Amino acid sequence: MTDQANRLRKQLESANFDPQNYVKHLSQQSDGDRDLQEHRQKIQTLADETAQNLKKNVYKNYRQFIETAKEISYLESEMYQLSHILTEQKSIMESITQSLLSTDKDETAKEMLAAFPKETEEVKQRTLTTLLEKVEGCKNIMDTPGRYLVYNGDLVEYDVDNMAQLQKVHAFLMNDCLLIATWLANRHGTVKYKYNALYDLESFAIVNVKDHPPMKDMFKILMFPESRIFQAENSKIKKEWLEILDETKKNKVTKEKHKMEEVELPNSPVRPEVLVSTNPFDDEETNPFDSEEAVDLGLEWIQELPEDLDVCIAQRDFEGAVDLLDKLNEYLKDQPVNTMVKELRVKVDERVRQLTEVLVFELSPDRSLRGGPKATRRAVSQLIRLGQSTKACELFLKNRAAAVQTAIRQLRIEGATLLYIHKLCNIFFTSLLETAKEFEMDFAGNTGCYSAFVVWSRSSMKTFVDAFSGQVFDSKESLSTAAECVKVAKEHCKQLSEIGLDLTFTLQSLLVKDIKAALQSYKEIIIEATKHRNSEEMWRKMNLMTPEALTKLKEEMRSCGMSSFNQYTGDDCWVNLSYTIVAFTKQMMVFLEEGLKLYFPELHMVLLESLREIILVAVQHVDYSLRCEQEAEKKAFILQNASFLHDTVLPVVEKRFEEGVGKPAKQLQDLRKSARHIRVNPDSTMSQV
What we know:
By secondary structure, the protein is α+β, with helices and mostly antiparallel strands. Helix content is about 65%, strand content about 10%. The protein has 22 helices and 10 strands. Strands 1-5-4-3-2-8-7-6 form an 8-stranded mixed sheet, with helices on both faces. A hairpin with a 2-residue loop joins strand 3 and strand 4 (about 175-190). Helix 16 (about 480-495) packs parallel to helix 19 (about 580-600), helix 19 (about 580-600) packs parallel to helix 21 and helix 20 runs parallel beside helix 22. The termini are far apart. Mean pLDDT is about 80; it is low at about 265-295 and about 685-689. It is found in: Cell projection, Growth cone; Cytoplasm, Perinuclear region. Component of the exocyst complex involved in the docking of exocytic vesicles with fusion sites on the plasma membrane. Belongs to the EXO84 family. This is Exocyst complex component 8.
């Protein structure tokens, strides 16, 4: 045994061991289950021995494990200290390098300024004209007065989505715009480039793109909702582009501000104080020039606000954009409104419109619906902060409606109907509950939106009921299956009460039509089946043949509420009732129980009239048989069945209906009183009923 275990151990430990081939070979050689069980026991014993040896080795080397862990901890601490020292040295070296570069740059700039005097705007304009002669389609560029060249150079454009190289371009930066021209493959004369695009400096923002080799020395131009990426020849040229673009944009803003101030200042040398009226009734009037001077829009963050908003929108930093808007509104809250403030408002309002469009798109059903209601929280909260809670509410509910419809559509219809309804209810009501909780969290301070949520909930319930009815009622399922499905839906609906949302009445009102049709359809089936059995009635006692069958029937009748059924059973396996009456009783009691599961007040008369019609078929059949039967023995047997109907079945139906509904049914009581005449006076008629 030990040799076999050693061989098995070596076989399992071998480097080229293949489990599948091993099992296949073993199953071919085994004679039966016994050999496989023995081999399994050997492998289990070997596994236990291996586990025991492993435990022994762990205990044996436990101290070494502890010492090794301590050494690792010491080494980790030393590595952290070394990393900290290297980081400090790196920061010191960078600061020294920056200071040296700054000093060299200042000295170089002074030397260049001394060697080459600053070009006049006229010279720059001539240079720009000369360069633009090389660009096809740029004849009207120089029509704008005061436009001159600031910087130009070759760049390579890349695709924003997949970073694939697109084309080689030449960029011309002017004092008020940026011109992009592409290289011509077939040059003619002095023309080397072709006009591609012209951007106003205020219409785009500059973003530095971090180097990710081989993609490096790049920067991005953001023009909502588009963007373009360019690559410079090296890091030095990229740095020049970023610095000159930023400086040119600032110069333009400053120049426009000074120009506006010069236009708004009065031409008269008279001081503003002299213009103040001496009329005592004009004391409350404010001087327009004082208002102009009272608002300081020269702060750096205000000057850069439009560009910062563009960057935030392009980078999907919605919170940052709304924070900037709140900061501006807070700053201008108590400030007088003048021309400069109005112009700033116009620029900001355009960014607010763009931001709103992006947020609306985020909430549109076209976007991915994964993530549940929480995925919409970011866009909804920012729309509310922008003062557009009504739009946020509408878009949020539309998004959730699309999500619910998509989830219901994607639910596969397979297996039993009840299983599908369980899945459907779980998906719908869970989604409704999550949406309600998220709505309460997002719109806590906007109570006016709650009515919209209630309307949306009822609309969503209609979508659910359409899917529910299509599977339960349109497919002609049995009444018991329909009752179980409706019961499941009601139980899930009650779970919404924990958030104060009761949609039970809505569910019932939407289902009432289908349930009525189902009850009436099943009633017709029972009546037809009863009439068919009545047509073949021989009025004979039931012989169940075996005691087991009799016991089973007793259990079925006891479950239907017929506790006195034993008095109608005879010797051996005989039952002193007709097969027609017994089958009718079971079928009617099943209908009553399923009808009570489906019951709600709107169905009261439908269920009651259906029961009355079903019972009337059986009672009229017994009445007709009594009047037609001449043989005394059979007549006595028919009277015994009539007694069972009147004294046992009808009281149970009345009692069970009252328990399920909560009030007695006068129609059933009147029907039983009418049926009493059959038992008391066999020659009476039921025609008056």
